[in-house]
Amino acid sequence: MSTDIANVATATRSIRNPVLAGFHPDPSILRVDDDYYLATSTFEWYPGVRVHHSRDLVNWRTLSGVITDRRLLDLRGCGDSNGVWAPDLTYHDGLFYLVYSDVASFASGYWDPQNFLVTAEDIAGPWSDPVKLHGRGFDAALFHDEDGTTWLLSMSADWRPGRDRFGGIEIQQYDRAERRLVGSPRMLFTGTSVGVTEGPHIYRHDGWYWLITAEGGTSWEHQVTMARSRDLFGPYEVDPDGPLLTSVGRPDLRLQKAGHGSLVRTQTDEWYLAHLVGRPYSPLGSCVLGRETAIQRVEWPSGEWPKIAGGVPADEVVAPDLPAHPWPAEPETDHFDAPELGLCWSTLRRPATTDWVDLHARPSYVRIHGGQSPVGRQAPSLVARRVGAMHCSLETVVEFDPADHRQLAGVTAYYNTLNWHHLYLTRDDDGRTVLELLSSDNGRRTPYPDLTVDVSGVTRVGLRAVFDGPVVRFDYDLGAGWQPAGVDLDATILSDEHAALIIDGEPAAWGFTGAFLGLWVQDLGGDGAYADFDLATYREQ
Question: Secreted as a keyword (predicted)?
């Protein structure tokens, strides 16, 4: 099954969660006529803001990303888990509106967020030049009111020591004609005692303004909070029955971290909530797959508060009364025959431009020109795809002629600059071309010199990376069949939980993404090294 296309059996007409497996957090769901769209966060990866499409809420396909070039956002130098946070997708008067936050830091109580807005007549673009909005907080979202006005919501950050850095939800009018914010911001909602109030969206329904927020932080204490008011500016009363959705106190649930939701109403007046979840490998353990997207059915009788059965995330829910609309399955193997990278691929901190990702120099190959080291944040050369299942693999065939030890090319199981496993070809000091294995655990590198393999004279080398639950394994093929690299590696270091680091109560590092499998080429001397990859096959078990 594809990571990016959830083809679910439609005979039972059920939604099976997660609908977007692997790193797809912070979903913003939107319906335009008969089409449903989900926009999700991408952080330091291009293309930014992945958009997914459905006609029945059951079957989803990836359309692409919105931020495909530096005109829309430059991620050079972006820190791990910085960059694009919590996009918001809306539609009004024939235009798609996308708001996204570029968060530059989260240390010492500072965030340095900057919010942007782009528009397009078609979901596929082209998208306008970005409008620079405020930088007072992140998780910005638009609300288009029935009177024709448009409003920008966001969490309100407070940097001052001793204050709650999640100061509440603020609102300010956005002038669509002038393409700018007008008037003064107003505090709308300060949240509940749960705290960490963020992720706001407003909906107009049944004579009320309904404010939905995420609270509790994006891990085990996460929840979806509902509040309502007769007036846009409040005051907002909170649902007396508690959160609309949460996994708190239920470690037995398969879907954890339930929160950060957005609502959608179907053509048949049914309501659903898209939200993020995590699937730990053990109770409240590591979520190697990252934060994923799930959908829950919402019951919303007139005059009452919306409810989700049990208030907890279900693995399977009743689908809406819509015609089934499955999509073609994604092929297991990418032969690199297309003029551009396939939709399954992402690139780290720089878009896949032809100066380093070349699909034309050699037909049916992708030529990746080497980039910076694993800690380089300006020009790394990593082409990767999301890990979508506990048991999966990526295999490829590489042709590479390294000149020295500064040139490396191979496959990686990757989380961020500090946490990864890498099987690669390089040149030893004695002139041999060798296959080596290196791991990094929070920046502590572990080589495996006893596992070095001489591949001198072998033109084409098969490489494979395998996720087998909590274990990562590598294999190689020199022409006589697959051979194990010889060591079991820890897959759980490629998780949000492992990446997070708190020092004296402040985040020194955070983890908001998920594990990737990828093709990685390094040219540490800047001497023009490149590697040719002939096909890449991704399989899930």
Answer: no
Q: Which of 198, 270, 292, 496 is catalytic?
A: 198
Residues comprising the chain, all counted: 541
506 and 370, same domain (yes or no): yes
Q: Identify the CA nearest to 40 among candidates 329, 30, 264.
A: 30
User: Does 125 share its domain with 201?
Assistant: yes
Q: Which pairing describes strands 530-540 and 391-399: parallel, antiparallel, or unpaired?
A: antiparallel
How many CB atoms neighbour CB 538 within 10 A?
22
Q: Would 501 be classed as within a structural domain?
A: yes
Query: Please, what's the b/e burial string for 143-155 (b: 16 or more CB within 10 A of its CB; e: otherwise)?
Result: bbeeeeebbbbbb
- Domain interval for residue 482: 333-540
Question: What CATH code is carried by the domain that includes residue 197?
Answer: 2.115.10.20
> Cβ distance 225 to 214 under 8 Å?
yes
135 plus 263 within the same structural domain = yes
- Average pLDDT of 502-520? 85
Q: Is 450 exposed, middle or buried (0-12, 13-18, 19+ CB in 10 A)?
A: exposed
Q: Is 145 a catalytic residue?
A: no
Tens digit of each residue's pLDDT (9 = 90 or more) over 384-422 = 999 999 999 999 999 999 999 999 999 999 999 999 999
Q: What does 208-227 look like in DSSP terms, one character per residue?
A: EEEEEEEES-SSTT-EEEEE
Q: What is the pLDDT of residue 505?
A: 66
Dump the DSSP string for 150-193.
EEEEEEEE--STTS-SEEEEEEEEEETTTTEEEEEEEEEE---T
The answer to whether residues 338 and 311 belong to one domain is no
Helix (H, G, I), strand (E, B) or coil at 434: strand
The torsion of the CA quartet 157, 163, 168, 173, rounded to 10 degrees, works out to -50
Helix (H, G, I), strand (E, B) or coil at 98: strand
Catalytic one of 26, 80, 170, 334: 26
Q: How far apart are CA 466 and CA 477, in angstroms?
A: 14
Query: Which residues, in sequence order, are bridge partners of residue 277?
Result: 292
- Asked if 493 and 362 count as a contact pair (C-beta separation under 8 A), the reply is no
The enclosing domain of 443 has a CATH number of: 2.60.120.200
Q: Looking at 291, 318, 345, which one is the last position of a domain?
A: 318
Q: What is the separation, in whole angstroms, between the first and last Cα of the chain?
A: 8
Number of folded domains that form the chain: 2
Tell whether 517 is covered by a domain: yes
- Which secondary-structure segment (H or E) carries 498? helix 496-499
Using one digit for the tens of pLDDT, what is the confidence trace for 350-396? 999 999 999 999 999 999 999 999 999 999 999 999 999 999 999 99
- Catalytic: 26? yes
Q: Which two tokens stand for residue 187?
A: 């505090």
Quickly state the pLDDT bin for 91 (edges 50, 70, 90).
very high
